[in-house]
TrEMBL record:
Pfam families: AIM3_BBC1_C. Residues 79-231 form the BBC1/AIM3 cysteine proteinase-fold domain. This is BBC1/AIM3 cysteine proteinase-fold domain-containing protein.
Amino acid sequence: WWLKNGLPESIAGRSGTDFIFESDSNKIRRRGNRTIEYRDYYILFYDLSQLVFEIQFESEDPRSTVKLINSYAKPIPVYHKLYGQQIVSYAAQFLGTKIQDEIVSHSLQVSGAEIISPIGNKSFGVTIYKNLNNTNVSKIDEIKPGDVLWVKNGKYVSHKGLMGAKSVTLEGPDNVYTAIIYEYDPKKEKFKVIESDSTGHVKKESFKIGEFKSGRIRVFRPVGRDYVEWD
């Protein structure tokens, strides 16, 4: 796997779902007509923790000379850089149109900012808010425009329309719904978001936390590559 600049088979299948990775390579000529190759791997997991390891091998005999020379785990950093307004402005230009990609992933990857790419549908940055069935709630920062609303297996009570209250299920790949928050009212605990529906139509929507009957809610803060020292 190291000759293909890939990962061990035991974890390669999780790439893009549980983590993303990058690698750097370098060659050094040694006496005796030997070429030593060094390869650094940087694996970023969906909670933004990291595993970094380095291997070396001789180009002339890569299989029997390969060895691990350094490895360490990096904890989650404690600082962040905001890209909120840039993300909101980019997503807002698609309101009333249809797009092929999901609006959150599209905005984070194409908005022009050096933002860490989504990791599967499990991570869109640093988790700043968690809510499980409106019973177990934790928050580490205020919710701001440009944050990402993430809801899994979400059901809520809608009071819109002439039919009165009705139960609505939030849909998405693997039962995960995502949207970009453009405003949050802490008094009403109300999210105002930009979303793309199943047909790709981009529109505004709003949810009150108290209207959720069940599901896991998270709010992610997109962060730059410098957050994990990938700049």
